[in-house]
Specification:
The complex is a heterodimer of chains A (about 550) and B (about 450). Chain A is an alpha/beta fold and about 550 residues long. In chain A, helix 9 links the parallel strand 10 and strand 11 (about 260). Chain B has two domains: about 60-115 and about 295-430, Rossmann fold (3-Layer(aba) Sandwich), CATH 3.40.50; about 120-290, 3-Layer(aba) Sandwich (Dimethylsulfoxide Reductase, domain 2). Chain B has helices at about 40-50, 70-85, 95-110, 120-130, 140-145, 155-160, 160-165, 185-190, 205-220, 230-245, 265-280, 295-305, 330-335, 415-430, and strands spanning about 5-10, 20-25, 60-65, 65, 85-95, 110-115, 135, 145-150, 175-180, 195-200, 250-255, 285-290, 310-315, 320, 340-345, 360-365, 380, 390-395, 400-405. The longest helix of chain B has 16 residues, at about 205-220. Chain B is globular and about 70 Å long. The chains are: A alpha/beta (about 550), B alpha/beta (about 450). Bound molecules: iron/sulfur cluster and zinc ion.
């Protein structure tokens, strides 16, 4: 069965296609090369349209215990609609933590076809995968959280050999069926359980005597030794604190010479200057990223309005309890692994700090030169909902639009921002890198994010429109594995995605000590942490793709 | 090996603790009742006993009390449910797979969803939705807690191996308090556990006790309380206060089924305030324990699939979440439904008497020992999750989805299979569908 997408302007950064008019051929759900003269079974005319791969959100909280806790906590913000929506205004009415069903529908309607859940606690991995499997249309994957387990910190304190940590990391990736490792406030969540209220990069967790820098170095080394494509995904220390730029730069230093991905850096790019004691340090972050090819970042852009912040960083979320709006914060300590904090929050235009956060996110996106190493995220729902992506893309592509909005913000934030002076406007090609090609590359996923032969035929087709926001809000067509699922913004067919993982090797003897530790201290058997391929595919219901490892250093 | 009776190690499905490492007799295909080796758990013993087939079991689908051909019964039931204006799906004693299918089917027919334990679930949910909380999980308590406070009379009966899970082999042993009501039953239970420091107060005294603790940690003097604490408890309360004052991690555990009376929410609310206060200087957290008969499972699956917790109606395109109105018992009492499906797969728990007043079709999907099999319009016998088939269940602290393996060959289909069949029939009959076809 062959389908041809005929005559579109193709933006495929991997192939240096920047509006190149060409046909795309699809066979059995993947992009293929037809033999000359082949007549397609389906011919879809997309003359004049812009054709890109399906978009990828590489950091979005779409499934797992803390998302579901937020849903239970906030029925008042839940939008009741379950069925696909016909009109954009209807689709935009979405609470900060929609159902799995609505999440899948809304992402697909925006032309997103793959999303990655960045905070999978090993004990909760099964729930994350269950929720993601119940999210229609999307290919998914997760980053397993490490860096706060009592066991790991004890290992580092005891100076256990790196090989043993490597086995633990590889075992965790396999057991949780994850694609990468995320560390959240390294050693800090754990420290909070021992009543330590703050922790900087080189400060020891008082109980284990281990610093965040040590944890980061150990985990970076493990991933590099194991040839895992996605670098350590780091939520740095001191999130949200004025002056935390110093911790962020110290984190960058502490991870040298390894590759590292810093997540939602907007929340980690604050100086402590100015009348309000808080200022933008976007330029310093951008400078560091521009100077270090080993770094990549996603932004965590803030969007004004009601949302709920859900983070593993209980140390930080506990401090935020006082500003919870509505006032019902939740903090959970979880299973000697980590924790979660769910704090409802409202970003206000006229509030200095929130306005400053808004400008910092955009400054970072505009000051980092290489679009392959910076990703557009709202850290959904922490900075705001993913439904704001069309709006954010418009802000990046249209200087006058962003300056109009800037003018409405808190005057002190406007005065202190360099945003006014930045004339960069993203091109369509750069948007294709930012939202497609680059995320696939940083995750080591070869068959998504581009339109070359053998790529999965996840394709988004936009009708050109001088209103950029409208264009990205309502794609003309979205194809999932070669099938049209969305037509002019409305869902017309139903295709489900699968799970993406990597599978580095580990040795049984390397995790035997963990078994002993679990038997003594945990309340679940070690076997309970293991999700087999068969379980994932048949009982959880998500087909599995295992991606190859990097082979940079070993065979 | 021949001649030896094999035993399998597995996970127990009979309460929210989902204990691992339980020895089950491995059954031959002749499903003969077999006694379980003693594992210090009455609930497990009872659950296992109820899982043993006998001649009174209804292992075939029934239609108006008579054995029926399976497909015909499913087809008729699906048709009648589709024709009803407002179905109620209640009981919901099932696992993750069962609940996923139930919600999918409910979306097609516009059903109301509620679990048999939802009064207890609602106590915790209201508390959460009102002001949030600082909570914890089982391993955290086992590893970290130096003070454990059990709150309420029933927690150890509902979760029999709780103490061995939390305090066995951990060093140094935590100080454990048990706050119960002032009656004979509690006192006799407490006598069996002399190592616990028990405090028995009238429910009316609990608030004053908690506000006294709160006041102590607020460095404010205690308000004059309406119900002064009886003298005999003064010492125990003082001991608790002292323990809390020196604690590094104090955990408070309750089972919401002990807090269903009017005004009990105030007790839990003031308990949360104590915990918030303690966290200003030390660490403390609560564990609202649940998870039996798939209650946490139903709540979680329903919430992720629809965006709302239980006690809602799925109006095909919209969910309508109204916890008072869509409480199953209220729906039944007010005749707010005209067909009903009751699910109970773990144990033969009969539906409430009001179930039988529903005007339209009444369907039971559940344990083969259910007597209501004979009384229902349609009865579909089910396998026992985690005993007869592999299963996923949420543990009672809500963070772990536990994978349970079958311990024997199933004698009946699972809840998921029955609801899958009902949905297929619904679609085959051209029933309304809420989404583009799959
Ligand atoms: S405590 Fe609960 S889970 Fe554990 S054995 Fe008893 S009934 Fe089963
Ligand atoms: Zn995040």
């Amino acid at each position: 069965m062959w389908t041809r997408l005929r005559g579109g302007k193709v933006y495929d950064p991997n192939a240096n296609a920047t509006g190149t008019v060409r046909d795309l051929w699809i066979c059995n759900g993947v992009i293929a090369q037809p033999s000359p003269g082949l007549i397609p079974d389906h011919d879809i005319d997309v003359h004049g349209c812009i054709v890109m791969a399906g978009a990828i959100d590489m950091h979005t909280h779409i499934g797992g215990g803390k998302v579901n806790l937020a849903r239970m906590l906030l029925p008042e913000f839940q939008h009741a609609r379950l069925a696909p929506a016909e009109r954009w205004e209807e689709r935009q009415k979405l609470g900060p933590v929609p159902s799995t069903y609505a999440t899948g529908c809304r992402y697909a309607e925006l032309g997103y076809t793959a999303c990655f859940e960045p905070a999978v606690l090993p004990v909760n991995a099964r729930q994350s995968h269950l929720e993601m499997a119940d999210t229609p249309f999307l290919d998914t994957g997760g980053y397993a959280m490490l860096g706060n387990e009592d066991y790991l910190l004890q290992c580092i304190a005891d100076k256990r050999p790196q090989a043993e940590i490597n086995d633990l990391v590889a075992w965790t990736l396999q057991s949780t069926q994850c694609l990468g490792i995320k560390v959240v406030n390294a050693a800090g969540i754990n420290a909070f359980k021992f009543n330590q209220r703050s922790l900087d990069v080189h400060e020891p967790n008082q109980h284990y005597g281990v610093t965040p820098a040590q944890v980061l170095g150990t985990l970076c080394t493990a991933l590099e030794d194991l040839d895992v494509p996605h670098p350590l995904h780091v939520h740095s220390s001191n999130l949200g604190m004025p002056g935390n730029i110093e911790s962020t730069l110290a984190t960058i230093e502490a991870t040298a010479p390894h590759r590292v991905h810093l997540t939602h850096v907007q929340f980690h790019a604050y100086g402590a200057e100015g009348v309000h004691g808080m200022s933008s340090a976007a330029a310093r972050i951008a400078e560091a990223v521009n100077a270090n090819p080993r770094l990549s970042i996603d932004v965590g852009q803030v969007v004004f309005g009601q949302t709920v912040t859900i983070s593993g960083d209980t140390m930080f979320q506990f401090r935020q309890c006082g500003v919870a709006k509505p006032h019902k914060p939740c903090i959970v300590d979880i299973e000697l692994e980590g924790g979660c904090g769910v704090v409802p929050f409202r970003y206000e235009q006229k509030q200095f700090v929130n306005a400053l956060q808004w400008t910092i996110g955009l400054e970072i996106l505009l000051l980092v030169k290489d679009p392959w190493r910076v990703f557009l995220t709202t850290d959904h729902p922490n900075g705001g909902s993913f439904t704001s992506y069309p709006h954010l893309i418009a802000l990046l592509m249209d200087r006058s639009y962003r300056e109009r909005i800037l003018a409405e913000l808190h005057p002190d934030a406007v005065a202190s921002s360099q945003l006014k002076g930045i004339d960069r406007e993203y091109t369509l090609e750069e948007i294709a890198i930012l939202t497609r090609a680059a995320p696939a590359k940083i995750l080591g996923i070869k068959n998504l994010g581009h339109l070359g032969v053998d790529a999965q035929a996840d394709i988004t087709v936009y009708r050109p429109n001088s209103n950029i926001e409208s264009m990205f809000a309502c794609p003309h067509l979205v194809l999932k594995r070669g099938k049209v699922i969305v037509r002019d913004g409305v869902i017309v067919d139903w295709v489900s995605g699968g799970t993406h993982t990597v599978r580095p090797q580990w040795e049984r003897k390397g995790v035997e000590r963990l078994r002993g530790y679990m038997e003594q201290h945990h309340t679940l058997a070690m076997e309970q942490f293991v999700i087999s391929d068969e379980e994932l595919e048949l009982r959880i219901g998500s087909p599995l793709t295992i991606h190859p490892l990097l082979h940079t250093r070993r065979s | 090996m021949l001649g030896l009776r094999m035993r399998t190690c597995g996970t127990c499905p009979f309460c929210g603790l989902l204990c691992d490492g339980i020895t089950f007799p491995s059954q031959s295909t002749t499903a003969q009742a077999d006694t379980l080796p003693n594992q210090n758990c009455e609930r497990l013993t009872r659950g296992w006993l109820l899982s043993q087939p006998n001649s009174a079991w209804h292992l075939k689908p029934m239609r108006h009390g008579r054995i029926s051909e399976s497909q015909a019964a499913v087809s008729e039931a699906a048709q009648l449910i589709a024709q009803s204006r407002r179905p109620l799906f209640c009981g919901l004693g099932t696992d993750v797979a069962g609940m996923r299918q139930i919600v999918d089917y409910a979306r097609h027919v516009g059903a109301i969803l509620d679990h048999q334990h939802s009064d207890a679930l609602q106590v915790n949910l209201k508390l959460l939705q009102h002001g949030g909380w600082i909570s914890t999980t089982l391993s955290e308590i086992r590893f970290r807690a130096d003070v454990i406070v059990l709150v309420g009379d029933g927690v150890l009966e509902r979760f029999p191996r709780l103490l061995s899970l939390l305090a066995d082999g951990t060093k140094p042993a935590p100080k454990i308090f048990w706050l119960g009501t002032d009656d004979l039953r509690f006192r006799s239970l407490a006598l069996l556990l002399p190592e616990l420091e028990t405090i028995s107060l009238k429910k009316s005294e609990w608030l004053s006790a908690l506000s006294e603790i709160h006041a102590r940690f607020s460095k404010r003097t205690c308000r004059d309380s309406a119900a002064p604490i009886a003298n005999e408890n003064k010492n125990s309360l003082a001991a608790l206060e002292t323990a809390l004052a020196g604690s590094k991690y104090a955990a408070w555990i309750w089972s919401a089924a002990d807090f269903l009376a009017d005004g009990d929410d105030l007790i839990l609310d003031s308990l949360l305030r104590v915990v918030t206060r303690l966290n200003e200087s030390t660490r403390s957290a609560v564990l609202p324990l649940a998870g039996s008969h798939g209650d946490v499972t139903a709540q979680q699956v329903c919430t992720w699939k629809t965006g709302f917790p239980l006690r809602q109606v799925l109006n095909k395109v919209e969910a309508d979440y109204q916890p008072q109105r869509y409480r199953a018992l209220n729906v039944l009492k007010k005749n707010d439904c005209d067909s009903a499906v009751y699910v109970s797969a773990f144990e033969p728990i009969e539906p409430p008497e009001e179930f039988w007043n529903v005007s339209g079709v009444k369907v039971i999907v559940g344990h083969p020992a259910l007597k209501s099999a004979l009384r229902a319009d349609y009865f579909f016998p089910t396998a026992i999750p985690g005993i007869d088939h592999d299963s996923h269940l949420f543990r009672g602290d809500g963070v772990a989805v536990v994978s349970l393996n079958a311990k024997r060959v199933a004698l009946a289909p699972s809840v998921a299979e029955w609801f899958g069949n009902l949905l297929n029939e619904h679609v085959a009959q051209g029933g309304p569908s809420p989404s583009p076809s799959a």
